[in-house]
Amino acid sequence: MTYKKIERTESAHDYQLLIKQILKTPLVHAPEQEIVYRGKQRFTYRELGERINRLANALTALGVTPGDTVAVMDYDSHRYLECFFAVPMLGAVLHTINVRFSPEQILYTIDHAEDDVLLINADFLPILDHVKGRIDTVKKFVLLQDEDAHLPRTHIEFAGEYEALLAAAEDRFDFPDFDENTRATTFYTTGTTGLPKGVAFSHRQLVLHTFGVLASLATPAVQGRFHREDVYMPITPMFHVHAWGMPYIATMMGVKQVYPGRYVPEHLLELIGSEKVTFSHCVPTILHMLLKSPKVDEIDLSNWKVMIGGSAMPKSLCLSAMKRGVDVFSAYGMSETCPILTLAHLQPGQLALSAGEQAEIRCKTGIPIPLVELRTVNDGMTDVARDGNAVGEVVVRTPWLTQGYLKDTKTSEKLWAGGYLHTSDVAWIDEQGYVKITDRTKDVIKIGGEWISSLELEDVISAHPAVGEVAVIGMPDDKWGERPLALVVPKPSPHGNVTAKEIVHHIVDYSDRGMIGKQVVLVKVRFVDAIDKTSVGKVNKVGLREKYL
Fold first, then answer.
1. pTM for the whole thing?
2. Which residues are catalytic?
3. Where on the phi/psi map is residue 433: left (φ > 0), alpha (ψ -120 to 50), or beta?
4. CATH of the domain at 448
5. Would 388 be classed as within a structural domain?
6. What stretches of 324-404 show up as alpha helix (H) in DSSP?
7. Could you tell me the residue range of the domain that residue 100 belongs to?
8. What is the tens place of the pLDDT at every residue in 47-76?
């Protein structure tokens, strides 16, 4: 069989999907729109374009050439946004360093990524002091510093300070065209065991992810919609999967953007109120902190839309947010998927449902966005029934998936076994196409040969009024193989002083009503002061198993 190709004339332009294309539209159609940093500094999109050009010139003067790697250690800032564009537009690679890694892990990622230039916020200089003299690849350091920041003593010799370098550089730069499959970004996964794994994405992948997510977010008439009149503020670190790719989307749309710097709940709430923020994204832990802040009663959250990812959103948290008028809904993806694969938008008829019924849908993993092929399969890669009951591993294909881990062929082959990317997440898909993650393959609790979802049990326990946080892990049991261990952080009085027996009775009540399996009555409850988290706010179940079993 012969497929017919489009004939291309020699004079036709070979249009490449490059990150620089994302920047063109807002510079033409929204040049005076604002970009705000910490509520203290304001730039227009026109100034953003000029600063990106200046940064490109400054990096070139430092010796950065196509193929080099430029690393960044910073809070969520306008500087980070400028790096999101300038570095890959040069043909270089942007390495977004996870500043919550340990110093040894940061050293490993710097060397593994072969960073040539490192831009570092003054607050993070003590991290590098722990590994001084052991950074082999970095040739130049650039200081990032806010006007009110204190510069600690350091052994590092800087090639310059960021703002001074930009001020001395030209505000025009001719960004080249090159192959859209050129690597644009690198970052490292936040696994709880072993060394961090490097994940890379090309210009083409980032552009297609931008369009795919935008198409899905712009589709709803009201609920969960991201549109041109919104005000965007990320509450997901920009080092973590490009802040879920949302800064690229927000920039292409030309919306007002607010970058908060450090995550301090009271300051975040102040910015939501003063800058009229209408769209954000974060992990459940951050939303919980914001809703529990004493300042929350001073802020009108009724125009705020929040996309929740990173881990499952408890129904109780969803209902708490909805009571304050927050349009909250789940998203799903992982570091290896760029990241967004699904969004939990409500269908038009579902907006008339009760708050409890809506929360059930908003807490689901969601419906695959355009260009995402998502399956739930058994061990033989055969699809399980889409009946809202049968569970299988989630495997996916879409144009923006990482093609493998950097310098790790063996693990990459395992990731892509059978031609699909394996997420290691267990889920079901219902008749309407909604996906619901029920657990990680390694976190499923096997009681007497049957699988019990730790996430579903956590959702039930978190509904108890005296429970602040909960994590469920499997503990060995001679009779049943495993049984659930619920680690519970109680709320302070007057809701506190709850007993383990009361928690178990609460679970039994859900079981008696058929809302969760009978096997969960084998749960053991243990009260703890805090739930250990990973560097991006996810519950660290590997660490919890090591700590409590």
1. 0.86
2. 189, 336, 446, 451
3. left
4. 3.30.300.30
5. no
6. 355-362
7. 19-262
8. 999 999 999 999 999 999 999 999 999 999
